[in-house]
Amino acid sequence: MGRQHQTAPLLLILPAALLLLLGATITEARVLRRVNDRSLFDVTSACKKASYPDLCKSLAPSKSVGSLTGAAIDVATSKAKEAAAISAKLMNVPGTEKLVKSGLCDCRDTFSSAADSLQLAAKNLKDAAQYDLMQNLSAAMSLASTCSDTFEDWPDLVSPVADINDHLTKLVSNSLDLASTLKN
Length: 184
Prior knowledge:
Elements (H helix, E strand, L loop, with lengths): L1 H38 L3 H5 L5 H5 L7 H27 L6 H30 L2 H23 L9 H18 L5
Helix pairs in contact: 4-5, 4-7, 5-6, 6-7
């Protein structure tokens, strides 16, 4: 009699344990599906939201819109630093006209400031500070366009940094477009 009494609770526990095991397996499958969905991030779809999709797609592979935005900001930062260095170098070329030197000086300063704003934007992205991220990217965009505006003030002058300035503006524009799609 005592032996039957011991197996009865065991028979009741066994179905409950199986239900728990089955529930854990279903939960694991859901988690794995979420992980796999993240690994299938579609850069092409995300880049459709950017002003310059082909330039955006060149930043692949990325695992999320956040990492794609970070890559765009990093490339823009490097380009802004490069533009500042080129502007400084061109200022010192013998025979450069005084007005061109003045314009290049303005460009060097605005490119350096744009790089600073982009570095802050990268920090904002890591800190998930969306408002500050958008502010710093907007500032970088404004600064990047300031160089071309400088040379437009003198129609007879051609900017020696027009191409790099154009590329930087596109990179910052894409960074801004991608950042605007991030959730707060």
